[in-house]
C-alpha cells in the first residue's frame, strides 16, 4: 500500500481490533479519568447578559451538560501512546517476514518531530525492539532532548545523530540501511504504526462502557491519534445513535 487512498481504505475497525488483540500483552491499559471541576465549569450556562453583542443575543442561553474524560496515555510505557504503534509494527514484521529475518536485519527509524523532536517514537521502537530481542538503530537530531536520548539508549538501541530536518534524518537512515540492511519502521504515515496507535480508542471504549455510561461518543481528542481513534471508536455505532450522543454532550479527550 503505497498511496494514501489505499491506506485509508485498509484502515478498518477490524484492522484496529486485530492490532488491539496483538499488542495487549505488551502495553498498559492506561486510566480513563474525569474531572468534576472541569465538568462543572463547562456545564455552567451563560447568562442572557453575557450573550449581548454576540450572534446569540436575544436567544435563551443553552443549558449544556458536558462530561470530560481523559485517556491518560502519559502512564503508557515510555510515557506516550507511541508505544502501541511501535509494538504493533514490530509484531507484524515478525508475523510477515519471520522472526529470524527481523532479528538478523534489525530495525531502524528516525525521531518523528520535524521541528520539535520529542523522541517518543524513538524510545517506543527502542523499547519494543529490546522486548522482542531485535537490534535497533535510531536516528535522532543532535538537538534532541537529552532525556529522550538517554531514554532511547537505555533500551539498548544504537543512537545515530543527524540534522534536525526530515530530509537530513532520512538521509542518515538511508546510509545506515545501506550498511546494515535494517528494516525501516517509519515514525508516521505507516499502516501498522497507525493501527497500533488506534488501539487507544478501543481501550477508551471498554473503560467507558465499564462505567455504565453506555456507548462513548468520540467527539474530540487532543492527541495525534484522533484519526486512528475515530475509526476504532465508530465500529459499532450507527449514525443516528452518534447524533443522539452529540446532543447529550459527552466528550472524550486523551
Mean pLDDT: 83
Helix count equals 11
What structural class results from the helix and strand content?
A: alpha/beta
CATH architecture of the domain at 13-27 and 82-193: 3-Layer(aba) Sandwich
Strand arrangement across the biggest beta sheet: 5-4-3-6
* Overall radius of gyration: 21 Å
- For the secondary structure, the number of strands is 7
User: Beta-strand percentage?
Assistant: 5-15%
Q: What gross morphology would you assign? A: elongated
Q: Tell me the helix content.
A: 40-55%
Cofactor: pyridoxal 5'-phosphate
Biased composition (Basic residues): 234-246
Domain Tryptophan synthase beta chain-like PALP: 66-208
Family: Belongs to the serine/threonine dehydratase family.
Primary descriptors:
alpha/beta, four-stranded parallel beta sheet, 11 helices, elongated, Rossmann fold, three-stranded mixed beta sheet, 254 residues, disordered C terminus
Amino acid at each position: 500500500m503505497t498511496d494514501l487512498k489505499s491506506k485509508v481504505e485498509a484502515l478498518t475497525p477490524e484492522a484496529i481490533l486485530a492490532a488491539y488483540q496483538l499488542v495487549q500483552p505488551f502495553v498498559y491499559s492506561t486510566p480513563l479519568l474525569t474531572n468534576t471541576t472541569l465538568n462543572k465549569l463547562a456545564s455552567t450556562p451563560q447568562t442572557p447578559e453575557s450573550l449581548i453583542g454576540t450572534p446569540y443575543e436575544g436567544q435563551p442561553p443553552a443549558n449544556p451538560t458536558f462530561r470530560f474524560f481523559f485517556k491518560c496515555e502519559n502512564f503508557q510505557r515510555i510515557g506516550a501512546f507511541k508505544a502501541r504503534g511501535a509494538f504493533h509494527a514490530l509484531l507484524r514484521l515478525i508475523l510477515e517476514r519471520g522472526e529470524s529475518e527481523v532479528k538478523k536485519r534489525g530495525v531502524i527509524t528516525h525521531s518523528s518531530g520535524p521541528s520539535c523532536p520529542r523522541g517518543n517514537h524513538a524510545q517506543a521502537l527502542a523499547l519494543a525492539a529490546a522486548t522482542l530481542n531485535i537490534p535497533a538503530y535510531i536516528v535522532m537530531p543532535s538537538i534532541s532532548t537529552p532525556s529522550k536520548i538517554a531514554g532511547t539508549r537505555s533500551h539498548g538501541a544504537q543512537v545515530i545523530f543527524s540534522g534536525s530536518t526530515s530530509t537530513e534524518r532520512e538521509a542518515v537512515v538511508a546510509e545506515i540501511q545501506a550498511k546494515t540492511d535494517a528494516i525501516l519502521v517509519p515514525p508516521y504515515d505507516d499502516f501498522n504504526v497507525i493501527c497500533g496507535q488506534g488501539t487507544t480508542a478501543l481501550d477508551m471504549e471498554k473503560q467507558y462502557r465499564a462505567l455504565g455510561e453506555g456507548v462513548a461518543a468520540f467527539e474530540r481528542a487532543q492527541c495525534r491519534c484522533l484519526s486512528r481513534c475515530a475509526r476504532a471508536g465508530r465500529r459499532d455505532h450507527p449514525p443516528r445513535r452518534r447524533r443522539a450522543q452529540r446532543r447529550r454532550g459527552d466528550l472524550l479527550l486523551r
